[in-house]
Write a structure and sequence with these properties.
Blueprint: H1 2-31, H2 41-71, H3 76-95, H4 99-121, H5 127-131, H6 139-166, H7 169-189, H8 192-198
Length: 204
């Protein structure tokens, strides 16, 4: 039993590291853009984010493949997110317009929120199938968690729009790299009582 718990903790840590690597890579590529042409102003801003996107997309694909090879599982949510990143990243690079990569989190969060709302309207939680085998909750627990995550996703979408439209590109990169993960971590930390109440295997 102890070995099983240790294995689950190792898998969780590995998954978290692999998910965070692309974000840190994006951040470093953006701030350490090799400005060999001595660009300034808007031209520099556009080139920095296009360069960071070119680095981010392949790194995300590599870490997603590694995650599957190491953990032998990958959630539907991760697959959908990766596909959307490729799509919006490709548009950013092709059209040389940073707007697409900046709007990507908004589209992803709103899309997931809409899907979850449709599931609730039909009387069931689609969150369980999206998250894979990450959690084992009772049916009521999934419904409550789904409602909370819908509100959280819509809030993140609103914050993303607010930051990239009104606080500048550098601030948005910082928010995307550190703000969103920290907010997500805090959100799930505050769900402790819910997990405690509705976990199927309460002892573990």
């Amino acid at each position: 039993e102890s070995n099983r718990m240790e294995k689950k903790e190792e898998n969780s840590l590995t998954k978290s590291i692999l998910e965070f690597v692309p974000l840190i890579t994006f951040f470093l590529a953006y701030y350490y853009y090799p400005n060999s042409n001595n660009l300034i102003g808007e031209d520099l801003s556009v080139e920095k984010i296009i360069f960071a996107t070119k680095v981010f997309v392949p790194i995300l694909l590599i870490t997603s493949i590694l995650s599957y090879l190491i953990l032998r599982t990958i959630s539907k949510m991760s697959i959908i997110t990766a596909l959307l990143v490729i799509f919006f990243g490709g548009l950013t690079i092709w059209l040389r317009d940073p707007t697409f990569i900046k709007m990507k989190p908004t589209i992803i969060y709103l899309s997931f929120a809409i899907v979850l709302i449709i599931g609730l309207i039909r009387g069931r939680s689609l969150l369980q199938s999206l998250m894979g085998s990450t959690l084992a909750l009772e049916e009521r627990g999934w419904i409550v968690l789904t409602k909370r995550i819908i509100i959280f996703f819509i809030s993140l979408a609103f914050l993303n729009e607010l930051v990239w439209r009104y606080f500048g590109q550098d601030q948005w990169v910082n928010f995307k790299t550190f703000g969103m993960p920290i907010l997500s971590l805090l959100f799930f930390a505050f769900q402790y009582r819910l997990f405690q109440k509705y976990l199927v295997d309460k002892e573990n």
